[in-house]
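Table S2 (text version). Query chain:
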Amino acid sequence: MTTTSAQVRAAAQMPFPTARGPLGRRLTDLLARTPHDAGAGTRALVLHAAHAAAGVADVLHDDDVQLSLFVLYELHYRGVAGVDERWEWDPDLLRVRAVLEEAVERELRARVDVPQGVPAERRAVADALFAMTAPGPGPSTARFVARRATREQLDELLVQRSVYQLKEADPHTWAIPRLEGAPKAALVEIQADEYGGGHPDRMHYALFARTMRGTGLDATFGAYVDRVPAVTLAAVNTMSLFGLHRRLLGATVGHLAAFEMTSSLPSRLYGDGFRRHGFGDDVTEYYDEHVEADAVHEQIAGRDLAGGLAEQQPALVGDILFGAAACLYLDDLVGAHVLGAWEAGVSSLREPS
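Corresponding structure-token output:
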């Protein structure tokens, strides 16, 4: 039997997660219909989104806002099961997304500490990024995993990471058509490696899927969204927020630079944690690959991509550093949540629906 393109797309789509509040329930009801049949429902949802975003004390930890935004973003990737593909560019639904995005961006800009006075020079920007991402002496998820994590906590780590790692590199790839010259070439070099250098089985998300399967977990994208807390979704949503907006090109580049600069050493520790529990190369290959790959990527991202973009477009220096700082801030938030739960002897995941 011949497989149609629609069937291929449907097989890759994220299962629709369970709503976590009134906004999510209204969004679920709306997306069960077609844009043609929605009537005034989409316009009403804009008001509900504004109410939801304004009515929470901490938008980065709010389950309803972050899951709703995650679903809206997924319409621009591989889609959501059962949702008409025409919703992707529905003008009113984009307004809903914009209301939530504005709240998230406003919160990040208010919280994140961005270095000031960095000149728009390749070396100066790269030096600032390397200083921002230098490892500190405090507790970290990677050190905990290497030395103390239980077998169950290893599974939790993979579940927490699966909402990004199973589509690894995709949010930053939006920046490629928005770059020119040397920065564009630098990003393509990084992303080509992320996508396996032309070998599908070497794609980093494919390696992560192999790790999940090797530990007995479901490697279907989105299989564990219902178990992942809001703060983890916020970290992934921020990548999409930066990547999907051309005005935030600098933030996308800075985010990627910080992401790559903080990956190599932790990956070694994560691999050690899995080896400590007796797992072999089929499980640790993903992390072992990143020890070497990201040691190279961090130099390209910091100097050729971020530093090169700063020299090419000096007005973007502030956003480059903001993107890096946002990446580090959210990584710390997620790490604090996970470590806090583990140190207390409880799960870092949400209870099953």
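Notes on Table S2: Residues 281-312 form the longest helix (32 residues). The radius of gyration is 20 Å.
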